[in-house]
Amino acid sequence: MTRRHWCWSRWATPVSPLPFRSVPTGRSTRTGLRGVSRVWLLLALITLPHRASALIAYTVSFPLERSARVIQVEIQASLPSGAASFTMNMPRWSPGDYQVVEHGRQVRAFAVSDDGAGERPLRWDRSDNSTWRVAAGGARTVLVRYRIVTTPPGNFGPNVEAERDLAFADGPALFAYFAGRQSEPVSLRVVAPQGWVVESALDRVPDADGPSSGFHFAAQDYEALADAPLLAARADLVRTANFTVGGRPHRLVAFRSPPASLGRLAEAARSIVTAAASIFDGQIPAAHYTFFLDYGGQQGGLEHRNGARIGISTSARLGSVAHILAHEYFHLWNVKRIRPRELGPFDYQNPPRLSTLWFAEGVTEYFAQLICLRSGFERPEQLLNHFDASVSAYSANPARDAVSPAMSSLRVWEEGNSSGYGGLDYYQAGELMGLCLDLAIRRESGGRKSLDDVMRLLMREHAPPRPGYTSADLASAVAAIGGPAAGKMLNQIAATTAPLPIAAELPAFGLDASFRPVSHPTQDEAALLAGWLRRGPVAEPR
User: Fold this and answer.
1) pLDDT tens sequence across 73-128
2) What is the tens place of the pLDDT at every residue in 406-440?
3) Which of 249, 339, 380, 459 has the greatest count of CB atoms below 10 A from its CB?
């Protein structure tokens, strides 16, 4: 994710998506799942990987209630044979936003009925903010209903926003789940008011009930459902643009107060995507990707499995937008596939404690800088000035003498700010750690290897279905590429408060301690610097 002033998850091969398009919904606002044909349910079961005998079917609608918009959620599912009870949960946190928020606090009008007996109400009790225990009462198929209105936002964007003409939801804040059944396939049907369009990063499946039935999606499991933002809005509040890189379709969905044209932004995004993918030999690990661009909404960005929600000022310059696009898009690899072991599969009830957020976020920030350089949005001198300012700010922070990057990551839950602990920002620390490691690897290998190679190695060894990485795995990967000294350096700068040895690396690149090029670099120094600061085609004016 990216912080608001600038502006995780198992992955499996998705169902082959249909081409992107915004689909206006029809007049129907009926939300009962009895209106969904058995043909649709059968089609969804055939389309999804058959990993369970029952499909869990979600329906979302947006009724007006006393002139205020609410979001209604219905969940239909069959129960295991002989089940006497079952448990429903709402997540206590949203992946990527490291604070406990108890999304269940926002649930209204919760009800459960026997869907096969005239919607006979079932008894339930609520043991805490996130848990409902329901007596099955002999039901074979149940229908869960509840409503959610606009909720308090997260650190990087809205959780649930329900306005008269627009609704946006981050999955964990909207979707409850059947405890113990998170691995089962699910479907999502969205029914919105006439004249609205619906967008999601999920795979779309054919509309089995005809144009007025809503918009249908499929997800391999609950985690995939929760990791896909949902937007529904009046059509004139949404602009879209599409492009393809590496055979993968990408979509820009600008909403709320979108610009009249997305042409320049689409070209910028294409350049960013191309530069990011080149780090991984052009291999993009998602069948499709959606940038949700919230113009005039809360600043910040939050990554998802196949997309990201990004808040953008309506007056933002293209260069600043390119940077946040680069950060969030690089998360497609770093965090969403190259993930800490604690972040897959997600435990939505017990927030994970991990010591490597400096790598997940800070090293992503380092690569965002390189991607902007390689795609032509930054000049080499701008990047050097940025690193000089960052090193100065980090060195002046007294917290670095008391808090290590690993501790800042591990104890972020105590702060609730999703950026660090005890005054040490793991975004800034991790960015400079990435810089330090990259320089050391390039120097040690004579420019033949870099941190790019470390990322490719981690992708090969720790992307799903393989286990996520540990801190020891990170050190091993760095040592495998950069040698034992580089692995030892990583352990030292991550786990201790030792100063970052950046100044010691700069002379090999013909730079002084302020990142200024020296007057007469040697041929080797000039070659190392040129290899590090290689730049792509010049981008549009900023």
Assistant:
1) 999 999 998 899 999 999 999 999 999 999 999 999 999 999 887 789 999 999 99
2) 999 999 999 989 999 999 999 999 999 999 999 99
3) 339
Q: Which of 488, 379, 504 is nearest to 436 (CA)?
A: 504
Question: CA-to-CA distance for 469 and 371, rounded, in angstroms?
Answer: 24
- 415 to each of 346, 408, 500, how far by Cα in Å? 21, 10, 24
The pair of structure tokens assigned to 107 is 């649930």
* Average pLDDT estimate for 208-224: 79
Contact between residue 143 and residue 75 where contact means Cβ atoms under 8 Å apart: yes
Place of tokens 């998602």: 286
Rounded CA separation 150/162 (Å): 5
Tell me the pTM: 0.90
CA dist., res. 491 & res. 437, Å (int): 11
C-alpha distances (whole Å) from 206 to each of 17, 39, 60, 388 are 10, 11, 17, 53
Is the pLDDT at 53 greater than 60? The verdict is no
What single letter denotes the amino acid at residue 514?
S
**341 token code pair:** 């072991």
Whether residue 109 contacts residue 74, with contact meaning beta carbons closer than 8 Å, is answered with: no
HEC readout, 246-302:
CCEEEEEEEEECCCCCCHHHHHHHHHHHHHHHHHCCCCCCCCCEEEEEEECCCCEEE
Partners of residue 97 on adjacent β-strands = 94
Q: How far is the C-alpha of 484 from the C-alpha of 495, rounded, in Å?
A: 17
Cα–Cα dist 472/490, whole Å:
10
Could you tell me if 151 and 21 are in contact, meaning their C-beta atoms sit under 8 angstroms apart?
A: no
CA dist., res. 268 & res. 379, Å (int):
15
Tell me which residue of 57, 60, 55 sits closest to 30, measured CA to CA. 60
Helices (H), 36-143: 38-47
pLDDT of 34 above 70: no
The residues that bridge with 147 in the sheet, in sequence order, are: 72, 108
- Per-residue CA distances from 383 to 374, 377, 507 (Å): 11, 10, 17
Handedness of CA 506, 507, 509, 514 (dihedral sign): positive
In Å, what is the CA distance from 420 to each residue of 358, 413, 472?
9, 8, 21
pLDDT tens sequence across 527-542: 999 999 998 764 543 3
Token pair recorded at residue 208: 């089995």
Which tokens hold the place of 38?
């058995």
Contact (CB, 8 A) for 510 and 531: no
CB atoms within 10 A of CB 237: 18
